[in-house]
């Protein structure tokens, strides 16, 4: 499970923190935001936004992100 244990009961807070880290070009944060938006955890489900984050993660070198773009 990709939410840190301290935020598993508050996924909205996790989305907030991942967004802050993504602004700093953290590939892991973009990837996890993609997963959260893809599944609608902590944020409204939004496939377009999920793809945007997977693309950003891939562009930053995240190894799993390209598979999510297929």
Layout of secondary structure:
Blueprint: H1 11-23, H2 27-39, H3 47-59, H4 65-68
What do these coordinates show?
The chain is mainly alpha-helical and 70 residues long. Helix content is 61%, strand content 0%. It has four helices and no strands. Helix 1 (11-23) runs antiparallel to helix 2 and helix 2 packs antiparallel against helix 3 (47-59). The radius of gyration is 11 Å and the shape is globular. It starts with 10 loop residues before the first helix and ends with a helix.
Features:
70 residues; mainly alpha; 4 helices; 61% helix
Beta-sheet strand percentage?
under 5%
Rg: 11 Å
* Structural class label: mainly alpha
Distance between the termini: 22 Å
> What is the overall silhouette?
globular
Give the uncertain stretches in residue-range form. none
The major β-sheet equals: none
Total beta-strand segments: 0
Mean of all residue-level pLDDT scores:
90
The helicity comes to 55-70%
Task: Tell me the number of helical segments per DSSP (H or I, 4 or more residues long).
Answer: 4
Could you spell the SSE succession in H and E letters? HHHH
